[in-house]
Amino acid sequence: MKNRKIGAALALSVSVVMLALAGCSSTGGGTGGDEGGPLAGAPDWCGSKEISLGLLDGFGGNSWRLITTAAGADEVAKCPSVTNYEYADGQGDTQKSISDIQGMVAKGVDALVVFPDAGQAMLPALRSAYEAGVVTVPYRVNPGGKDGVDYNAWVGADFTTDGVNWGNWIKSNFPDGGNILFLSGPKGNSQGVDELAGMKTVLDDSYVFVGETPFDPTNWDPALTQQVLTAAIAKNPKIDVIVSDFGPSLVGALPEFQKSGRSIPALVTSDGNVLGCFWEDNKDANPDFKLMTVATGNDNVRLAVQYAVAVATGGVVPSSTTFDAPAFEDSVSGTPSPVECERDLPGDIFLSAEMSPADQAALLK
């Protein structure tokens, strides 16, 4: 998908949420109102104090981010006390992401929910926002630092458990060991590091990780993923399993195996409609192509929004700061579900997400 198309769709989704928020209150983006307790008729995490909230991405340029951002906006709209909502896309530029945080603090927002793609490079800006009195909640990627010192709370996902789930599946389906190629996002990102740690609690030395340590970085970008996988195929005559924490980015690259006269190997990854349909289309011609996925985690943002809104408005703070993404598909066992494919809907939607497939599809038009 072209970034221009993503930007237009995102602007539309944010505009819709802004209209909804405007309809909830006639007082604008002020922070007045009662300070205590949940707001009647709203979720318990929505307190009665009126606030403004900013949602910031380090990189918003793919469909996963578009749907995740829309999920965050949808969660914000459940709380009438959030009377002003803003979004900023760092566009993969660390300095812009830092400036986006600084700009929203200067505007006087009351709460920030931040996807800190650049990891620890974002920590000083997060700490500065927190010290300025802004409720600050980074999520998904660990920026380093400590809850209550550098920000209110980091709302992460249990990526170690994803790695354990992947490792158990690999061990069950390749009991005699094998060669594993592990692909993740930007170099050094905490998600990939945690996933590898989880896998290594399950897999012994008979499972050899080929490629870079701790993973081959792809920036979760389909074009770079194809380059990385093409190089890996040339270097490694035997790859039994590919592990990737963004499965849809692999679809354009996997045919490289067929071009080299090899079957697509087993794949353990995160879900995506395009990936499920690709598996259905190619499984018969590729006897080694087994597929296991975990939920891709669009809804991690919902928990982060709930936490930030609860602290800022005086609502009930969620009891957990960890988003648990369950196992989703397994082409071998069919448990918890077989591989899914919605051919009448766009490939770049995520069937594991809370947002309905139809609503996701509408965002992408």
Rg over alpha carbons: 21 Å
Oligomer: single chain
Task: Let me know the number of strands.
Answer: 13
Helix content: 25-40%
Order of helices and strands: HEHEHEHEEHEHEEHEHEHEHEEH
Notable traits:
365 residues; six-stranded parallel β-sheet; 37% helix
Characterize the structure shown.
The chain is of the alpha/beta class. It is built from eleven helices and 13 strands. The chain has helices spanning 3-24, 63-76, 94-107, 123-131, 159-173, 190-200, 222-235, 255-259, 273-282, 300-313, 357-363, and strands at 51-57, 82-89, 111-115, 135-140, 155-157, 178-184, 207-210, 216-217, 241-244, 266-270, 291-294, 322-323, 327-330. The strands form two sheets. Strands 6, 7, 8, 9, 10, 11 and 13 form a seven-stranded mixed β-sheet that branches. A six-stranded parallel β-sheet has the order 2-1-3-4-5-12, with helices on both faces. Strand 6 (178-184), helix 6 and strand 7 form a beta-alpha-beta unit. Helix 3 runs parallel beside helix 4 (123-131). Residues 1-34 have low confidence and may be disordered.
How are the secondary structure elements laid out?
Elements lengths: L2 H22 L26 E7 L5 H14 L5 E8 L4 H14 L3 E5 L7 H9 L3 E6 L14 E3 L1 H15 L4 E7 L5 H11 L6 E4 L5 E2 L4 H14 L5 E4 L10 H5 L6 E5 L2 H10 L8 E4 L5 H14 L8 E2 L3 E4 L26 H7 L2
Report a brief summary of the structure.
By secondary structure, this protein is α/β, with parallel strands linked by helices. It has eleven helices and 13 strands.
